[in-house]
Write a structure and sequence with these properties.
Radius of gyration: 16 Å
Largest sheet: 4 strands, mixed
Number of domains: 2
Helix content: 10-25%
Low-confidence stretches: none
Mean pLDDT: 90
CATH topology of the largest domain: 2,3-Dihydroxybiphenyl 1,2-Dioxygenase, domain 1
Strand content: 35-45%
């Protein structure tokens, strides 16, 4: 249910990710992280799949990406990372690494000096199959 009164029903439906190998990415997200397949279509480099991250939010995977070119992590307008809400950041991190993710930042506690109230969290970061950055975000 959206709280947006300007654009009723507004919310995130999906985030799209270009992959170099859609089958490898599907194995990582479905078997490794426990996502579920919503739909898939296309052939060859036009293959696309939508996976439910677990709460109805969708990650759309597009085949045919390249690992060539500059790093996008610092580019303005580019997505920096995808944060997944989890009950246990340590377990999610370990599971991702078990299924081929590379460690970026091991699980750690953090106190975010936010307004109106500080937030105590446990976070961990990995690089997914194509170098996409995933954060496991546990509210404490």
């Amino acid at each position: 249910m959206s709280n947006n009164t300007i654009i009723p029903g507004c919310g995130i439906h999906h985030v799209a990710l270009r992959t170099s190998d859609i089958e490898r990415s599907l194995q990582f997200y479905l078997e490794g992280l426990g996502c579920t397949l919503r739909a898939r279509w296309g052939e060859g480099d036009s293959r696309v799949a939508m996976v439910d991250l677990g709460d109805g939010a969708v990650l759309e995977l597009f085949h045919g990406g390249s690992n060539e070119g500059p790093c996008q992590e610092q580019k303005a307008g580019g997505w920096f990372h995808l944060a997944l809400s989890v009950e246990n950041a340590d377990d999610a991190f370990a599971r991702a690494v078990q299924f081929g993710a590379r460690e970026k930042i091991a699980p750690k506690d953090a106190l975010i000096d936010a307004v109106p109230a500080p937030m105590k969290v446990r976070i961990a970061f990995v690089y997914g199959p194509d170098g996409e950055i995933l954060e496991f975000f546990q509210s404490c």
